[in-house]
Design brief:
It is a single chain. Helix content is about 70%, strand content about 0%. By secondary structure, it is mainly α.
Amino acid sequence: MRTSGTLAEDAQPTALEAVANRATSWFGHDDLGRSLFYRLWPGFLVSLGIGSAAALIAIVVGSTWGATAGLIGGWTDVVMMRVVDVLYGLPYILTVILQKTAITRPLAALLGGHSKVA
């Protein structure tokens, strides 16, 4: 027996309210009649915040790195740009390693475990 307050069940819309609100709900409703748009909105805001923060950090770090390389110049510029080249290559290297792993193991299984592929 409940003595005070409301429960979450009291806040759920009825089936008739869900049908009436179908035209105003952009993504539709789930089985309980809750709007999917309002259930996805908090996740969207978190993703937008993380993406914005990552972009801001990239701008600050990249601008500082480039300004340092440009102002000092000489060998410092050359070394700093080679570091950037290595960092640009990391995603491709990781992709090649993952592809090699994905192809080698099925090939070894196909050849009965006696694969000479290294």
